[in-house]
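chain below, 399 aa
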Amino acid sequence: MDNMLEKQVFSKLLSKAFDVPVMVTYWDGKSENYGDGLPKIHIKLNEKPNMKSLAKMPTLTLAEAYMNRGIEIEGSIQELIASAYRQSGSFLTDQSGFKGTLTKMLHGHDKNESKEDIHSHYDIGNDFYKEWLGPSMTYSAAYWPKDGMTLEEAQMAKVHHILDKLHSEPGKKLLDIGSGWGTLIITAAQEYGLETYGITLSEEQYAFTNQRIQELGLQDKVHVMLRDYRDVDMTFDYITSVGMFEHVGKENLGEYFKDVANYLVPNGRALIHGITGQHYGAGVDPFIQKYIFPGGYIPNIAENVTHIMEAGMQLDDIEPLRRHYQKTLETWTENYHAVYDKTVAERGEAFARAWDLYLQGSAASFESGNIDVIQFLMTKGAAGQGLPMSRAYMTAREN
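prediction:
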């Protein structure tokens, strides 16, 4: 394909890619405006994209070009990507080009693969995450029920919202599958009187949580284990799992929910919080697969509900929290930009640009409704067993 034809093809694709006006400066130095009104965003194509790669995996091809400054964006990346998600028929969100790679991406994970996937994402260093996650080291959607909350307040509100929904009784046992840096299991022990257990595959998270447990003198109440979620040999009154099922792989989702059921005592309750979609789609993105979350898969809500029923559990409550994750990601992005130059110096520009693109792109995905985050409250038994007749108890703390 010659240079002129490539430009014509790309111009046609871009003319229908966004629902906000943009200006595009091409590799030959010439600029075109697309959409009505003054451009809100300026895209500079410093080099020609590979058209074959673009047709096969557009998001990965463009993301790698951005990482290496083949593409530069003046204006909000979040606004640009949200615009593409809103635009019907945009080549950036057309899943048809991904079909050739989906089979590989949707594979199930054995235990070694799961450990390697977790290691590649979470063990890049606690210091990196601490820079923008804040003191709670909570890497999932915060909960913002009131105006003016800080990120730390909203993250603790999320932990309380989860634990309050369980309507737990002091002295009983709780398991947190994918316990992160330990905030939930420590809070559950300190404020709810529970004996808590956390499991993680991340050595960095395991060491960090153990240090916190020692510093707080909670060795008798809080326990953390470095193991696969499939290797638990106890039962619990309550189970929580936050931001975990996105990591298990499509083929393992059914087993994951069956494990949750198996680890619960009769009439035990679980609160599962994770990213899901309220539409049918691929559930994967090649850029995020390669550079951010290897092995990840985002199930739609119907998949999760089917697995919950097949595991013999019943739903007590489903709560979508899409806007809460959008706000969380926007706050993380603001924090990340404050340490962006430091990240470049320590890890290189391509790494820093990839994470900036990931954070803003994810915020855009939630903003547009392309993905959601949902809390599933369920009972291993009849729905609502042991819970109040009104849902008011769930938000009593907020009110």
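The first strand starts at residue 22 and ends at 25. The chain has two domains: 3-93, 111-395.
thats it, cya
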